[in-house]
Specification:
The structure holds 2 protein chains of 2 kinds. By secondary structure, chain A is of the alpha/beta class. Chain A is built from 18 helices and 14 strands. Chain B has a two-stranded antiparallel sheet with strand order 1-2. Classes of the chains: A alpha/beta, B mainly alpha.
Amino acid sequence: MKATRWLSLIIVGLLLLASSTAMAASSTSPSGNLEIFSWWAGDEGPALQALIERYEKLYPKVKVINGTVTGGAGVNAKAVLKTRMLGGDPPDTFQVHAGQELIGTWVVSERMENLNSLYTGEGWKKAFPAGLLSLLSTDRGIWSVPVNIHRSNVLWYVPENLKKWGVKVPESWKDFLAIAPALKAKGVVPLSLGENWTVAHLWESVALARLGADKWQALWQGKLSWTSPEVVDAWKLFGQILEYTNPDASSLSWQQATDMVVKGQAAFNVMGDWAAGYMATTLHLQPDKDFGWAASPGTKGVFMMLSDSFGLPVGAANREATLAWLRLLGSREAQDIFNPLKGSISARVDSDLSKYNAYLQSAAKDWRTNAIAGSLAHGVVANERFMNDFATVMEIFLKGRNPQAAAKAAQAVAIQSGIGR
Amino acid sequence: MQSRKDRMIAVLMISPSLALLAIFVYGFIGQTLYISITDWGQSAALALNPEIHSVGLQNYRELFTGFLDARFRHDMLNMLFFTLLFVGSALISGLFLATLIDQHIRGEALFRTIFLLPMSLSFIVTGTIWRWLLQPTGGVNVLPTFVGLPAWDFLWLSSRSQAFGFNLALIGVILAATWQMSGYTMALYLAGLRTIPEELREAAKVDGANRLQIYRYVELPLLMPITWSAVIILGHIALKSFDLVFAMAGPDNAPTSVPAILMYLTTFRGNQFAKGASIAVILLITVSALIIPYLVTSLRPRSAR
């Protein structure tokens, strides 16, 4: 009896000592744990890991917990995040698509801290383009720090094959519709397409081409109705383009749709610039030689962006360490560490272009000069409720190919999600 | 008879499980019912203290008559077709396999194992395998080319064709599900066939019945109880199916979509918690309609049968 009683006293004493040293550890430099919640795993893991290593070198007292939830391109991670936030256990910071996916879910629920003072203090209001800043903010402040920028409206092709078939890269969708029948007659799929989200991805390029950057913006601010003639016309154009895609699209992943172009089974593919990463890194192709790119038809001069970003949730366990992480993320150095590995470009206008490959350099040049529009399919311009119901709208269109019906349905969805009026 | 002490010990033994069931099953069902009659899911759904108002049966009304909720009604139809065809084909193929194996063939244990093995896979694995097999360019469509015929051009899971309201894309899902579960029905029927007393068959033979007539008039009717329990088990698996369809066709393929997937997307992708809860309640009612009659008949006192 006596021995066990001594033992329990010693254990209690040690525990008290340990907890008191933990509490006494708060000093000017951040310490403790920093939980970074994301869905970056597999191919995208190394980029995040490089950032974490840089952070740990700068702040050795902080222990970084890399909380990744894999699978489903973030659907699983988002589900886990929502259950945690609803349960009052927010991670210190979490990956979220910049724009309405963050604002329409977490900012309107008053779950995020305003980062305006951070932006002013770090001089980021000059380092990031104005178009980007307006997409990240509401009238109450700025809500996240973008780590990267991906472009959505890119057209991919193989230059040799185009020469073989005697076609040029179409500058507008009218040009595409002119060359498509000849390609189809040769047994080549004019435009390859993959599973459902890639259809929404194609739609936003087509709509941007038909509407232009200004009207696209007006659509999301509720100033342009979904039933207006331009938008109905965009649906009509989309239907015409779909005639020249592969019928088995919904069985293919986006990589398989890109493979169709690489293998010469398809002429063109509209996909974000992660396709460049796939072709260069996984398929070992050379940019400019083995594959070429252009702005998707009709969108030259507009950069349709999407961005992964991190914010500061209200009630984060370790606020100091999180702010230090955000400060690191927005710095020129960190963005140029992360983005070459990730295959995207820095959100800043002053990044060191020598660290990037040929495609990314051309994308970065466009980023600094083009008009900036936000992507729909990747959470910039519409909140999650709209995006979820948009899948229903797309299905209504795919089933009946009726532009009027789709436009009406989209307007109904927009009103219900608080976008339209 | 049990003494008071024995009965108290019995109650104590099951009370932890009862408590857990009460909280995690029935408590959660109650909470879902409550959420389904609110409007939780408007813009600030994820706030720490969200504004929730009670709206009665509005969510249910919208699901069954709303313009934008047409997907729910299509999904219910898909689910019903899938259940009927999957259960039917699993029963028929299971019976067929059991009849074959019952012929006292050589290597019977080997065949039994082979047919039963797919059941050990999870639906996600089955869904992924069959998704690859049913790819329109390069999957099973390539088979005829081995004998010199042109490849099939059926689009399987991408198909948008319909026959009497039935989406042909579901054929792929039914195929995968039947492949997985026919071993189960085969095992049930084999056990059933083996327990039929030999005297019944001999009596029928004495009466002049041939093998086929014995099969049809003696063995099959005696297998009815097994058929019913297989229908219940397979039926409730089919009504709730989520993982198989998700793995095979993804979340947004409307021709194969089922209500369970819609519930997941509505709740976790669209943040419409009340609408998702209503779909969950409707699913619960549908499955209960299948399970409760079975429970009632099987729990009736033995003397009443």
